[in-house]
Amino acid sequence: MINEKPREPLPKDFGLTDAGIKKLEKTSGWIRGFVAMLPGVLLLFKFGAPSDPSDLTLGTTLILGFIIVFVLSPLAYTIVEQIIVRWWPIVTPFWLFWHPDYSKYKQYQLAQKRYKNDYDEWLKTQLSWWQRLSGQRFEQEIGAVFEKRGYQVYLQGKSGDGGVDLIISKGSQRIIVQCKAHKNPIGPHVVRDLYGALTHNKARKAWIVSVSRFTKGSWEFAVNKPIRLITIEDILTERFIVS
User: Fold this and answer.
1) I need a labelling partner for 7 at 20 to 30 A (CA). Which of 50, 222, 228, 234 fits?
2) CATH class of segment(s) 135-236
3) Domain extents for the chain?
4) According to the model, what pLDDT value does residue 44 have?
5) pTM for the model
6) What is the rounded CA–CA span in Å between residue 13 and residue 18?
């Protein structure tokens, strides 16, 4: 778990400048445009261009243009880039000669990708992120939390009985879970309803995971019952140990 907010990599960290990056991207765009024309040129050489442009019907032009722009061009560019940069160590120095900052730029792009992944993971440690989730997304994310802790998770969705959103299991242990993304405190009626669903679902325990807090009445009802009241803060601060 990432506790500190990740630092976004900057161009200067890699010996680059904003102007240099724009120039590289512009050059890359020109190269892509050049490569994009290659399939069309090859097709014309293969099948021959009509001596009279009027012989090329509008339908044929549209179909040929679609194939070149959306199918052949991206594929051709990807293949050429892979060959130049990765597959041909002899050609690579020439590529780097013409683009001296290309290797730095690729490292910068990789760092940006890692940063995005780390930032997305860090966001999930923030209470504000959880508070913005919809009910369905909250259920999915809580299910992912339990999966990381070795549980098999079954999303119930709207088919859940008695407000059961998840059924999680590990070995012989079977637990029903209700997820509450409400901002208002969770009252005892919610706990009472889930307690009634225990027998119906043949579960040993019932857990309620909530973005907000639980009322005093909820805590009192849960006393001496196989029910755990869990806030998202309990999970984020690791006060809640899944067992």
Assistant:
1) 234
2) alpha beta
3) 17-100, 135-236
4) 54
5) 0.63
6) 12
